[in-house]
Prior knowledge:
Layout: E1 14-19, E2 23-28, E3 32-37, E4 42-43, E5 46-47, H1 55-68, E6 78-83, E7 86-90, E8 93-94, E9 97-105, H2 107-114, E10 119-120, E11 123-124, E12 133-140, E13 143-144, H3 157-162, H4 168-191, E14 194-206, E15 209-213, E16 222-226, H5 230-236, E17 242-244, H6 246-254, H7 270-288, H8 300-314
Antiparallel strand pairs: 1-2, 2-3, 3-7, 4-5, 6-7, 8-14, 9-12, 9-13, 9-14, 10-11, 14-15, 14-16, 16-17
Helix pairs in contact: 1-7
Amino acid sequence: MKALTATEYNFPGQKSVYHGKVRDVYNINDELLVMVATDRISAFDVILPKGIPFKGQILNQIAAKFLDATTDICPNWKLSTPDPMVTAGVLCEGFPVEMIVRGYLCGSAWRAYKSGIREICGVKLPDGMKENQKFPTPIITPTTKAEIGEHDADISKEEILAKGLATPEEYELLEKYTLALFARGTEIAAKRGLILVDTKYEFGKHNGEIYLMDEIHTPDSSRYFYADGYQEKFDAGLPQKQLSKEFVREWLMDNGFQGKAGQQVPEMTDEIVESISQRYIELYEHITGEEFKAVNADELQDRIEKNVTAYLTSK
Length: 315
């Protein structure tokens, strides 16, 4: 199976390109962004050496569905999906923070809590909580947006305001949108027999208005539990069955890699790559409730160039 791990297009009106961990973002005339969801995969802020077939298509299509399903909550950047691996939308000036919202104590928050930490991003946590326990109300734990190769860093609301990363009025709206989007994602997940555990949102400004950017509610940006069996597993202190990229992190940790200096990424065999691809397909079908229809992976580069060029020249 073929995977798209790098792009270097020259689209009509292109001014620049930014290669992120997973997405390649093309600036068109300082007006539009063309975001190509590649098949690259990252974990612990490290891009892994092999791509995962169909991953880009899966993430792009999930994000498009959720962007369309939340336009009544806040405006978002999406205009079109000219290719299964591409979203085109309005150019926004992004806030240099990611709004992470957590409904349950797990992942990095649990690892910090287990080590004795009782405050995350200025949010105080009570004693006596257990792994995967639901918070009384969702909490927001923002992070800074890291450059490639660097780690995101926790930051509090107070620090964001003190550093001028957002005005008090802007931050109030970011919080409002974040909690409303999480509530909508939780509602949609429940209909699929899932629990939206935590996720992240990115926002920017367009014509002075705050817009939702990037992807939302995908398995790369979110963690889901299966609702069926959650309470029984929690009561018994057992790991939850989850839909997220956490299984990739767990595989890496089991093989001695957590992104720390001197550590080597374990070998990604064809079997490992195939198993990760199949898990992403499973994620897609559970999250959307639809069968995944893989688009022919032959000539990926040419297909994307042709579809995006046709879209841009038709505008």
